Amino acid sequence: MSFYYPYYLLSRDTSNFNSELCFPHLHNASCWKPKQSESGSILNYIVLSVISLLTVFLNLLVIISISHFKQLHTSTNLLLLSLAVSDFFVGLLMCFHIMFADGCWFLGDIVCLIYQYLAYIITSSSVGTMVLISVDRYVAICDPLLYSTKITLRRVRICIVLSWLYSSAFQSINLSDNLKQPGMFNSCVGEYCVVVVNFAEGIVDLVVTFLGPILIIVILYSRVFVVAVSQARAMRTHVAAITLGRPEKVKAEKSEVKAARTLGIVVVVFLLCSSPYYCFAVAAETNLVGASSAGIEIWFLYCNSTLNPVIYVFFYPWFRKTIKHIEMMQ
């Protein structure tokens, strides 16, 4: 029994294909191209290309901003940098997905497997970074006095590196059969490469890369939300503290609550964009959905990488300032 997991099409309905082969010279060995209008195909290419370029450009701005300006080298921003790196690579990987827009894959099994393998690693590392962001906000809001000693730049760097290494190692094990023989599950030449793991491994992957991290994120942010609300009420009732010589403390508390709110939006958007993707993987195993809906869930996940830097623009003044500085340097 196979557990068909993200980043591929589940099956091919031959009634939706025309008489044109992906590789005409291979005759019966080639896959058939799916039916689609020329105008629809062009529109598809344009939309996907715009999303890809926008994702790469916006996340590159985040990477340059945090990397270039030393005053932005904080623990929280390092986590945002890691997330931006993941989103940047998602934008690049979209280029490979665009190549499959006409229904045929022309780059071979090796390139397709590399694309799939990197997509799995990037997705896992993004989830890991989201967990680290939740931990960072939990300590900042719920244990602010010990934040500077518990959450240091060195520890954050180590956690980020470990998160990427863990994602790489876990997905190497999870996709070991596919890595040994690329294209082993393809039914014809030109088919979008199929990644298949057995049911038990698929369930473990689902728990480790989605359900477990989501549970941790929800628990931590539920606590953060309760404490942040209580702090906001306390600040409103003690506004007079500003006139009593404690403006710095009140300003710091407001800053932490605002940061928690902004990162909370990032986490919520991530959950909304990634949940359909993983629910599809589970439904696919029980044959509750077909291949026609696979692309929708995948693009929901991709769009999350485009939305993250947009959120920073609206809620982080430092990001808007750094963009202006970068424009002035050009």
UniProtKB/TrEMBL annotation:
Pfam families: 7tm_1. This is G-protein coupled receptors family 1 profile domain-containing protein. It is found in: Cell membrane. The chain crosses the membrane at residues 42-66, 78-101, 113-135, 156-175, 206-226, 259-278, 298-319. It is a multi-pass membrane protein. Belongs to the G-protein coupled receptor 1 family. One of its GO terms (cellular component) is plasma membrane. Its main location: membrane. The keyword Mitochondrion does not apply. It comes from the Eukaryota. SMART domains: 7TM_GPCR_Srsx. Gene3D superfamilies: Rhodopsin 7-helix transmembrane proteins (1.20.1070.10). Keywords: Cell membrane, G-protein coupled receptor, Membrane, Receptor, Transducer, Transmembrane, Transmembrane helix. InterPro entries: GPCR_Rhodpsn, GPCR_Rhodpsn_7TM, TAAR. GO terms for molecular function: trace-amine receptor activity. Residues 58-312 form the G-protein coupled receptors family 1 profile domain.
